[in-house]
Known about the structure:
Layout lengths: L5 E2 L5 E3 L2 H22 L7 H8 L13 H18 L3 H17 L8 H7 L15 H19 L3 H19 L1 H6 L5 H13 L2 H15 L21 E2 H18 L2 H17 L10 E6 L10 E7 L14 H18 L2 H17 L15 E2 L38 H10 L6 E4 L2 E4 L5 E6 L5 E8 L6 E10 L5 E5 L7 E4 L2 E3 L6 E5 L8 E5 L4 E4 L11 E6 L2 E6 L12 E4 L4 E8 L2 E12 L18 E9 L11 E2 L2 E4 L1
Parallel strand pairs: 8-12, 20-25
Antiparallel strand pairs: 1-7, 2-9, 3-5, 4-5, 6-24, 7-8, 9-10, 10-11, 11-16, 12-15, 13-14, 13-16, 17-18, 18-19, 18-25, 19-23, 19-24, 20-22, 21-22, 22-23
Helix pairs in contact: 1-3, 1-15, 2-3, 2-5, 3-4, 3-6, 3-15, 4-7, 6-7, 6-9, 7-10, 9-10, 9-11, 11-12, 11-13, 12-13, 13-14
Amino acid sequence: xxxxxxxxxxxxxxxxxxxxxxxxRRTGDTTVPRMWASLSDPDISPGLxxxxxxxxxxxxxxxxxxxxxxxxxxxxxxxxxxxxxxxDPELAATVxxxxxxxxxxxxxxxYLHTPTxxxxxxxxxxxxxxDRFHFETYNLGHLITAGVRHFEVTGDTTLLxxxxxxxxxxxxxxxxxxxxxxxxxxxxxxxxxxxxxxxxTGEAQYLRLAESFLRVRDDxxxxxxxxxxxxxxxxxxxxxxxxxxxxxxxxxxxxxxxTGDDELTGVLEGLWRDVVDTKLYVTGGCxxxxxxxxxxxxPWQEQISRVHQAYGRAYQLPHTTAHxxxxxNIGMILWSERMLALTGDARYADVIERIAFNALLAGISLSGxxxxxxxxxxxxxxxxxxxxxxxxxxxxxxxxxxxSDERLRESYLSxxxxxxxxxxxxARFHERAASASAEGLFVHQYGGxxxxxxxxxxxxxxxxxxxxxxxQGRIKFIVxxxxxxxxxxxxxxxxxxxxxxxxVDGEAxxxxxxxxxxxxxxxxxxxxxxxxxxxxxxxxxxxxxLAEDLVNQVAVQRGPVVYAVESPDLPAGVRLxxxxxxxxxxxAPVEVELAGERLVALETELVVLPGGxxxxxxxxLEDAPLVTATARLIPYFAWGNRGPSExxxxxxxxx
Length: 655
């Protein structure tokens, strides 16, 4: 198996209008600069200062979590992506200064980890890889990725040389210290990174290095939390830490794209289906559990170990205690887009869309400057137990978590992995819009793209999208340029879409089944229009019979957007636990403004359940008549932008 599709680059694909155009502008104008303001302010973040201390420019100790370097590199990657799409001399100068600062810190052997380098300035016993939870390989992976991107966008080799050095250090570990390398492969961003370095340089040593990562992992006896209890080729279910799992499998998908390993491709397909069919939240969230054990309930109890921020059993999908870390959700995008490139199967693009319009955007405020670490599907008042708040990793515990209905996004988190991951994902989201292959141009995502693809033999097809997606289902493409004959165009018919219709200059074209690509093979002319109509009835979704938390509850979806009820939209005197939906109830889409952003909400009649009952665990059901009240459901991604609140995606169903 080798890569079937190649994602279009920033030179070929942009979000320049519509929904994603707005997100792109917000990311560049607000998210990237405000994040830099935090990272460069030592009163807020140690992100920049740790490098200055490591370089000898400042005195002091390392502060912050051991993975802070990697989070700093993720911001750098977002900034580089901004330079690629929207050149900015001031930002370019900042990026250049940061690149040279990073280069000045790297050891001659390629090692770069500011906690150790700073410690070595004060004591001689500080060594590399002393603790697997120092996250050195995670940090080095993100460093290599940032170095490759910096070279690709600017042509400057400063950080590419740093990336080569980091890879050289990893090569030495693979050769001389394979056990230490395997034990330290926590959140293994380095799997993806060295393949990116191989693609940028064409140097086969980096492909061989990626192969060695898999070999040393399979020789290491670990646990499910790090997906190394069972050799990769023997894995059939996804278990353990969700970020680590999704990063691992994304990196392995990169590897098989280069090696053509059909057996490993089949393993990855099976593992991906295990997540999507039994463990993925309706919002696209990944990782149900704050804490658990795996393999849970196994008769081989000696193999059971603790897992955290993890996938649970099949269909174990709690709402209030859902973890759904933003980094895990992003990891699923990374894994899915690589599987899409391998197979050309629209199911992977469907999942990217589900995550993007729901779990991904829920992780960032509508203003683009505040963030969630976890993404529950229900938030309620007065929980009798504390849940680790956003930013509490246990490495730097927060002693007084806020009340359970006052968990809000924050501009800076002590565990800062998710915000820059969100920033780089959104800054590069144009790369998810479309791909090219020998079969033509494939459009994966809708929301305001401008695309231009040139084939190796000089044929050109340029399209501009005009749509109000995801709020309306009419997607119109205008052919702005066509040269050299035809390039087949393939439009994704989302898996949720039934009765889709397609026309080219008013002439009907047959549409393939939902969850596939419809091909249009013709010689294009400039000015032609392609109109894809995706009806958007409101769907009421049930859960699998084995998903205990979903019994007799339903969720509401319109198009790709999942909806939730939030307490500010409930009638006075109605509590969240009283809100229910009646089977067959009507929903009316209405345009609203929330926190200054235009959205489409759904108005409906809720059934108001009796509100009595005390604090007893079990009590008699009140014999009171049911009443109805008008309420509004909002897109899940928009909740939590109006102050403390309660919220739920799933609601009881009244027959």
